[in-house]
Design goal:
Length: about 280
């Protein structure tokens, strides 16, 4: 991986990196924070939401003080492939910046939009090869990235010790954002959609015996709460499956990074406790 720039922060090191991805067939960008010391350290992967790059979390979330205190590497990749020759759409909720962390099967998206494979196969292997990791990791994210973190953890439980989310798209098969993206990327077979729906995965027992708890923070002043995010579907699914899920409805908080910056320390601590158990 090529180091694009480097910063000292909270006694550790933040690197912006770039590499050619075999999964997406494009250059991909990311940031990696490493705490002070030789390690090895456990890894926490962050997945961002619609329209974001790796820079949104890196500059706005304020997570690195907690990461330094707990001795955790944080990795924040871009949200989609980008560049000339990569399919795109004029709308903010499809195409570049809106990868939805699935492997597309439909034209024109299939050649490059392979974000599930990128995160679970390529990115994890790269980080373990190039940084002093314990080869254990957890995952969290926001909105589209909350959907990504939850579904990737449920679909690949052997890879992750714990999972949490901020304002996730809880059931993309039952909201406009998800229906639009899944129709484009996966086609019209709703059985394929269901394989990437957190609420349906939990209801089907995907988390059983894997995660002792799933932490979700949601602002009650979030403008997308009712129509797009629908955390009540997560609660119902967890209850039906007997899965512990902690939903914290945060009064007055919206969908912005001010919300995440207010509670990200809790999430880092949640994962660090489990990664070091």
């Amino acid at each position: 991986m090529e180091t694009v720039k480097i910063h000292a922060v909270h006694g550790g090191t933040l690197r912006y990196l770039k590499h050619d991805s075999a999964a997406t067939g494009t250059p991909m960008t990311l940031s990696v924070f490493t705490p002070a010391g030789e390690g090895p350290f456990p890894v926490l992967i962050w997945l961002s939401g619609l329209t974001c790059t790796e820079d949104n979390f890196t500059t706005k979330a304020g997570a690195y003080k907690a990461a330094a205190q707990h001795g955790v590497i944080i990795v924040a990749p871009d949200t989609s492939p980008r560049g000339e020759g990569v399919a795109d759409d004029a709308a903010y909720d499809l195409g570049q910046g809106a990868g939805f962390y699935v492997d597309a099967t439909q034209a024109p998206w299939a050649p490059h939009f392979r974000m599930e494979s990128y995160v679970t196969d390529e990115l994890i292997a790269l980080i373990d090869a190039e940084f002093p990791t314990t080869k254990t990791r957890s995952i969290f994210g926001h909105s589209m990235g909350g959907h990504g973190a939850l579904t990737l953890a449920l679909r690949h439980p052997e890879l992750f010790t714990s999972v949490s989310a901020f304002a996730p798209i809880s059931s993309p098969t039952r909201c406009a954002w998800g229906e639009k993206a899944f129709s484009a990327y996966l086609g019209e077979d709703r059985a394929e959609w269901a394989k990437h729906d957190t609420a349906l995965l939990i209801e089907g027992g995907a988390a059983a015996g894997v995660f002792d708890d799933i932490l979700v923070d949601q602002g009650d002043a979030d403008p997308f709460l009712t129509d797009q995010l629908k955390p009540e579907l997560l609660v119902a699914a967890a209850k039906a499956a007997g899965q512990r899920l902690t939903l914290r409805m945060q009064p007055g908080y919206d969908h912005s990074y001010f919300f995440m910056a207010s509670f990200v320390d809790d999430h880092v601590a949640f994962h660090a406790t489990r990664l070091k158990a």
